[in-house]
Amino acid sequence: MSKAIIVKETGGPEVLSFEDYDPGKPGKGEILVEQKAAGINFIDVYFRTGLYKSEKMPFVLGKEGAGIVSAVGEGVTLFKTGDRVAYNGVNGAYAETIVLPAEKAVLVPEAIDLETAAAVMLKGMTAEYLLRRTYPVDSDTVLLFHAAAGGVGLIAGQWAKHLGATVIGTAGSKEKCDLALKNGYDHVINYREADFVKEVEKITGGRKCDVVYDSVGKDTFPGSLDCLRMRGLWASFGQASGKLEPVDTQILSQKGSLYMTRPTLFSYVATREELEASAKALFDVIASGAVKITIGQKYKLADAEKAHRDLEGRKTTGASILTI
């Protein structure tokens, strides 16, 4: 019998229960993974609170992790016992062991340790699709990335700078601004002390940004739109500060024929080919040293409640993981 964090009812961090859990044996096309770490993400908060609906109740929380394959089910050819693997988009990561579809996992290169792999499968692959596919960033791009000192933000800042972009970020303290500046950002605006819309206009000399990547939501709308040049793109990929009210699309025309998208990672890794390509791009950029991963917080599996309180209280920087 292993242990897991189980949600029996939606609500605050206090609903996270550390209990005995039997993941079962791998069936056809499945693998059993002895986990080394699981990533902590805002999507976990959304499922815990009920903002995103779980398919079943109770359920084991968590969407990304990494570990060692300890058993394979019938028909599995992608992996063998002893392989180092990581995954995302599979429910049940907050656990010592997990059974998952083999097609949802990828091999972890020897150059990447398993804690790092667990920390980046969601955040790093989110940065990958945002910068390379939602809006292909290059040396002509001027971008704004909210929550620059967060898990996705620190990866995106380095990766965007590697691609040659002018990278502007926002953060909520001097310490977080300083951290972002060390991770690829050319300019970081403390949104608690300055109006980020006015600061973006100053920084860009009135040109504004080609794209704004916004995982904050309620607190940054409609300011994000005012940071965009004519026909710029607002990529709203999260809502850490609260759910956005319905957006009247007329505002997009009023502010310069803007584009809006609400992307999710799972639409960008919907096929095995896309998943492997995204993972390869991520692991390659980490192995090359162009992107360094900051694991700002490590919690024991039993301390998931504290981890969620810290995440929601904006007390974290970089990635957070549960060690197992």
TrEMBL record:
InterPro entries: ADH-like_C, ADH-like_N, ER, GroES-like_sf, NAD(P)-bd_dom_sf, QOR-like. It comes from the Bacteria. Residues 11-322 form the Enoyl reductase (ER) domain. Gene3D superfamilies: Medium-chain alcohol dehydrogenases, catalytic domain (3.90.180.10), NAD(P)-binding Rossmann-like Domain (3.40.50.720). SUPFAM superfamilies: GroES-like, NAD(P)-binding Rossmann-fold domains. It holds the Pfam family ADH_zinc_N. Keywords: NADP, Oxidoreductase. SMART domains: PKS_ER. PANTHER family: QUINONE OXIDOREDUCTASE PIG3-RELATED, QUINONE OXIDOREDUCTASE-RELATED. This is Quinone oxidoreductase.
